[in-house]
């Protein structure tokens, strides 16, 4: 087998004093943090689409990066196999144990789904062969139900029964592949499930149909032995103006309304949370407290740009606050998928590695620092003390639903004006975080 990333060695941990750009400074797979190896805390995944397919094309210009990986023609099965070779060499050199895929990332799509499915059978056999002798597996699979023009009015939310059936067929096949490749999860990202104007849209009808498609996916998945989690990946907008899975809270409400909450969790993407006007940490917390934090699409946005820039995570504050939520959640059933792409001028093979090293080191630092925040205890102590008045007899009565507005009003009348509730101490707590980050 010819080496595709020639000249790039296996990436090793060299520590924070190393200046080797092809080495980890913080990600030390075997280092134990809070009783678990870093590699277990951080099941990283490679996103097939950004890493192996996307060459930098944007609305104003074509590819800058050559992702042919030695194939003579792109969009062929020869190219599909070259991407598998490149992907496995890439993951092995970085020590990444998982990958995520859309059906059409793996093979060129034909007009006839039977032909596409044959190609998917062939490529998944090849992937299985490559998996042998490695511990690489699929983290999650999904069907691309947004790229093809047929999905212009949505997939589960489409007005066309034929398009809906086509989406069903793609989901069925993507589930088959996910199970075949040992996937932990199956994702629904509803890029076209939404609307531009209510003048042409029956929202209730569309949402009911999305739920029906998800129920059919659960029934089929369980019937073929898929025991993992289904995920909704919330995103408020882009490409649609209003997307139904706006944020974690909206998606949780939808899952509960339609009885899908036992089989589904959420796949939270940092840049989607910020597009919804939240912090990444907010959507993680909302998922976690509802028992629905399943997996993470690791990336970051740019506050100066209003779209999904899918940058490799570099912001250590955000990564630390993310890992704080993940540790408090007892980990993830899914993992950390780098749904991230190189900037367009970072077009070389080395850049592909620098990007993953940046992302993995950022989350490793986040893990180290989040564990220190928990061990330090000052933040937990503050929160415990902040709510101390609830330990009183009256506080306990409220918590246990043993009181009434009448009783509370009587208490208020007897006490006169209550004292101020105590400082929120935000600046003190931010200083604690800085103290831990930079000690
Ligand atoms: C798009 C996005 C998708 C999903 C999978 O913003 O995040 O790549 O992760 O369809
Ligand atoms: Co994503």
Question: Which helices and strands occur, and which strands form pairs?
Answer:
Elements: E1 12-13, E2 23-24, E3 32-33, E4 36-37, H1 38-41, E5 44-47, H2 48-53, H3 77-94, E6 98-102, H4 103-106, H5 113-131, E7 137-142, H6 161-180, E8 185-188, E9 194-195, H7 203-223, E10 229-232, E11 242-243, H8 248-257, E12 264-269, H9 270-275, H10 280-289, E13 293-297, H11 316-328, E14 336-338, H12 349-376, H13 378-386, H14 393-399, H15 405-415, H16 426-437
Parallel strand pairs: 1-2, 5-6, 5-14, 6-7, 7-8, 8-10, 10-12, 12-13, 13-14
Antiparallel strand pairs: 3-4, 9-11
Helix pairs in contact: 3-5, 5-6, 6-7, 10-11, 11-12
The structure holds D-xylulose and cobalt (II) ion (CO).
Protein traits:
439 residues, alpha/beta, 2 domains, eight-stranded parallel β-barrel, 45% helix, globular
Distance between the termini: 47 Å
| Cofactors and ligands | D-xylulose, cobalt (II) ion
Query: What is the N-to-C order of secondary-structure elements (H for helix, E for strand)?
Result: EEEEHEHHEHHEHEEHEEHEHHEHEHHHHH
**Overall structural domain count:** 2
| Backbone CA Rg | 24 Å
CATH level-3 fold name of the largest domain: TIM Barrel
The best one-word shape is globular
**What is the assigned CATH homologous superfamily of the largest domain?**
Divalent-metal-dependent TIM barrel enzymes
CATH class of the largest domain: Alpha Beta
pLDDT < 50 stretches: none
Report the β-strand fraction as a percent range: 5-15%
Percentage of helical residues? 40-55%
